[in-house]
Amino acid sequence: MTMIRSSLRRRLAVLAPVLLPFAVAGAYGQSPDLEAAPAGVAADVVAERERVSDHVIVVSLDGLRPDAIARFGARRIQRLMAEGSYTLHATTITPSKTLPSHTSMLTGTDPGTHGVTWNSEEMESHGHVATPTIFALAKEAGLHTAAFFSKSKFQHLAVPGTLDYVQAPAGWPGKWLADRTVGDVERYLEREEPNLLFVHLGEPDFAGHVFGWMSPTYGAAVRKVDRELGELLAAAEQAFGAGNYTVLVTADHGGHGRNHGSDDPRDVTIPWIAWGKGVEAGVVLEPGVRTMDTAATALWLLGVDAAAGSVGRAVAAAFQPEAVGTLVDAGAEPAIPVDAVTNPGG
Predict the structure, then answer these.
(1) Closest Cα to residue 295, out of 329, 263, 248, 262?
(2) Is the Cβ–Cβ distance between 109 and 101 less than 8 Å?
């Protein structure tokens, strides 16, 4: 009987993150926050140069393959693509794993610099990432920062003193569902107006590992995070006002079969979408955007300089000419030249 219970528990540990979203609402949510600033934290902005946007939201849809957006009818993501600038041919790093990829996404550096090559919560042996994150740089510039993580391994990125608010699951099973995470974001935005907000949603990755990338269950997971993205944007609209914030939507990796991590194009090709304030509408970006460019773009939008050693470049082609002027004036190097775009709207 003990062996049977042990086997059952192992299976539930694997299946719970995928099956519960479609069966039991709010299954997770009892784990304490990593660090929580009290309501009313001041957002004194002392950024060094002109900002394109006062509020930037970076959304990572874990394990989202670009070809899944159309195949599974992710309507809200498609709306952002139509109204903003995007590419379905951006690339992530190798190893194309969650923690290394997100570290590159949020530091603007490659693994050779940030050193994060493991993909599990190993705080006792590795501690927090030493390379400055976008949260650290924005906080140093006097901006208000917040992060909502859906996996416990993200504790490595929650460097003390860099986030006014941060939460992530702790303990078994180390994962939260998108509705729990977005619900928490909604409540947070009722009382705070962060300048830099990061939101991570994990369902596509959960489903891919158990049922396979591009399977029907994976498709249901894609549609779920698409719905939650809509809820997140509605909350942002209420908090910041229409046209007063900029959103970057991307992924850490794709996947094939039931795994990822290789240099296979299905693993390393990711979507990259910019929408909102300062963004040029109807632009299809040429290939060349990398996950490190997400960090550089978010910082540039906020008027904050990237750290030394960053290889990320702001994606200038995604933004309106007047916004790009601030990039040129600041001496930053764009990831894609302004004229290297395809504009289906002419």
Answers:
(1) 248
(2) no
Residue 60 three-state SS: strand
Q: Tokens in use for 239?
A: 């908090």
What is the model's pTM? Answer: 0.84
pLDDT of the residue at 2: 39
What does the chain come to in residues? 346
β-partners of residue 272 are 87, 250
Q: If DSSP codes are grouped into helix, strand and coil, which group holds residue 214?
A: coil
Please, how many CA atoms are within 13 Å of residue 208, restricted to the half-sphere of its CB? Answer: 23
Distance of alpha carbon 318 from alpha carbon 293, whole angstroms:
12
pLDDT of residue 334 exceeding 80, the answer is no
Taking alpha carbons only, the member of 76, 86, 145 closest to residue 281 is 86
- Read off φ and ψ for residue 133, nearest 5 degrees: -90, 170
Distance CA 162, CA 165 (A): 9
Neighbours of 295 (CB within 10 A): 29
Please report, rounded to a whole number, the percentage of residues in the chain having pLDDT higher than 90: 74
Helix (H, G, I), strand (E, B) or coil at 104: helix
Which amino acid does the sequence have at 342? T
Contact status, residue 259 vs residue 72, Cβ threshold 8 Å: no
Distance (Å, whole) CA 217 – CA 184: 25
Alpha carbon 44 to its chain centroid, in Å, reads 24
Tell me the torsion sign for CA atoms 92, 93, 97, 100. negative
Average pLDDT, the chain: 85
pLDDT tens digits for range 147-201: 999 999 999 999 999 999 999 998 778 999 999 999 999 999 999 999 999 999 9
Q: Where are the beta strands (DSSP E) in 109-217?
A: 145-148, 165-167, 196-201
Helix (H) or strand (E) holding 313: none
Q: Is the predicted pLDDT of residue 327 greater than 60, yes or no?
A: yes
d(Cα 23, Cα 253) in Å, to the nearest integer? 26
Domains, the chain, ranges and CATH? 27-342 (3.40.720.10)
